[in-house]
Amino acid sequence: MSLSLVGVGGPDGYLQDKRTAVRIYSRAGRVSSTGPVGRVGYAPGVVFDERFGRLDPAVWTASYLPAWSSRDAAAATFEAGPDGLDLSIPQAQQLWCPDLHDGPLRVSAVQSANWSGAIGSTDAPQPFRDGLVVMEEQPTVLGFLPHFGTISVTCSADLSPRSMFSAWMVGLEDEPDRCGEICVMEVFGDTVAGGRAAVGQGIHKFRDPALREDFSAVPLDIDIAQSHTYAVHWRPGAVEFSIDGVTTRVANQAPDYPMFLTLGVFDFPDRPGPAEHVPHLRVSRLTYRPLPEGA
Known about the structure:
Layout: E1 4-6, E2 14-16, E3 48-50, E4 77-81, E5 84-88, E6 106-111, E7 113-114, E8 141-142, E9 149-158, E10 163-171, E11 181-188, E12 196-204, E13 214-221, E14 228-235, E15 238-243, E16 246-251, E17 259-267, E18 280-289
Antiparallel strand pairs: 1-2, 3-18, 4-5, 5-18, 6-17, 7-8, 9-14, 9-18, 10-11, 10-17, 11-12, 12-13, 14-15, 15-16
Organism: Mycolicibacterium vanbaalenii (strain DSM 7251 / JCM 13017 / BCRC 16820 / KCTC 9966 / NRRL B-24157 / PYR-1) (Mycobacterium vanbaalenii)
Domain GH16: 148-256
Pfam families: Glyco_hydro_16 (PF00722)
């Protein structure tokens, strides 16, 4: 199966394949089409406001890039409820793609879209090395796919020196070049000390010829154990990054296609740090507001 984006350049862009028309948040904030996939987000209007009282399977896939292994093998450990989403990695959690990933890695992550081609094909988002093929064909779940607008993630984390957390937007790779990334934030535990942490933000080009690499991790006075709001204001030609309403950097470029969001916590067992520690990413709120009409 291949996906194609139809009309994304205009205000009523939508994503569809031969079988499924779906709703997508376009740059004008309107919903252009509906179909059997079900609702996209929690309302067919201009904003997306997720509090994670439950993890809606019509929006969220609770497995990390499952096409390259399987939904079961890549499944997250999580709780959802009145306090939001709590992603964690208990000691018993298995390695992610142990025969393929360079170095042992454990992950608990949720992503707001999922799809793949047939088993044996190369059609799926975010291949992490050359030569990957789909190991389990994925259902098409297109839960939340903004194209420009403001995305905010309010969260806290508990890390050891061998763990990290991140939130990022990435293209679906419905076309190979639509693969760029907007990293909302990324923090490695070995940079956390004394109320400071290096917060990574920026653009990863991957194989998108229209983008250039523009990413840095800047040490900041921030206690990641406390709740903070990390945001991107994404518009044609630029992405503005902020933390708690304070601009931290501006990239003078921007991916120009719909992107899905991943929230995740990661553990690297071969790095120094206590093996008994259980890392957590606790997300209390995710919001999206489209660009104003005509912006």
